[in-house]
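User: Round two. Same drill as before: sequence, then structure, for each protein.

Assistant: Same drill it is. First protein:
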Amino acid sequence: MIIPQEQILNLHQSIETPALIVDLQQLEKNIEAMQNLANENAVRLRPHIKTHKSVFISKLLLKHGAEGITVAKVSEAEVMAAAGISDIFIANQITHPTQLIKGYGKTLNIDGEIIRLSEEHGVIKLKSGQSIRLGSPVIIIPNHACAVANLFSHYHLVDSSGKIKQIPVDARGKSQ
């Protein structure tokens, strides 16, 4: 995490929640690491947009060397193509049940375990003796967020200086 934890814990004071918040420097660091790994192994990277559904992030992936992008639906491809992205692969839908990933992420400002998480709703088992006041923010870093991007119209990109920029979730609602 590049943005200091104290800054993350205070973002709810300047951003209406619930909200999608992305650490821009961490995003770029992760994209660079992923692209470097692909390059080192002579793999042509074509990331799937399902977790972000964003033209901005898709273009960032391409800028860092991705060969193209992958989408699940024609309607998502149309959004990306309209934004000038020309190398788009439409993947087939998976039709068999998938295994659940163990663990749902971590909490930053409370000592608890996430025992269920669905879109923006979750259940946290607090450590013994701990309580949370109603209305208090709970900061969660999920391990997976495919469905969540579809719930919001924009992301809040935050850089290490605290500057906040909104970018749209361009393919929101295009997964039907």
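Second protein:
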Amino acid sequence: MPKANAQDSERADRRGAATRQALIDATVALVASQGWGALTTRAVAERAGLAAGLVHYHFAGLDDLRLQALAQVLDTLAAPAERAAHDLASATPGDASPFSLRALVSDYLAGLDSPEGADHTAFALEATLAARHDPQVAALVRGAIERGIDQAAAALVAAGHADSQPVARAQARLVVAVLDGLALQRFATPEADLGAALDLLATAVEHENPHTSREDT
């Protein structure tokens, strides 16, 4: 392929990717502000500032657009826990643990205060409700929850906050459930101070380091 044609193709690919992302961003913003069922081709296109025909050019339909937006949002929300798990896996035995449940949860709640973070969380909550009636959405949400629990459990074991995988998974499931509840409260009562609840959650999980306890006895 001549160089000029290759460059044209690359530019077209970049434009296509940018258009797809603009449509996904518009979908997330619309669902976050108006609900899962409010999505229409025209509404998405208008929000993105694009022609309506591009929605069906780049996606198989509104359901496909919603699913791809959901997959991207879930990956974004899972990123902090993935980074924590990666940091722990990369640490040498003599390193101080880089994992802090308190810091992780604080970062999660702080993210809700940013427009993008609030939209992502609201979108995920809307999808969780929609999962009761949509098997494809349910599969994505279930997979994200279980992946998050697996990552958090591995981090808790590596950081010494649990001495077995079953205990760590139970703790991780509790953390995920409480975070979901705190996210709902943040939307319903944005003025509420969740700091005390956050402290209780972190203390409940981190109150004892079983590895340290055995070494000290």
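The mean pLDDT is 81.

User: Perfect.
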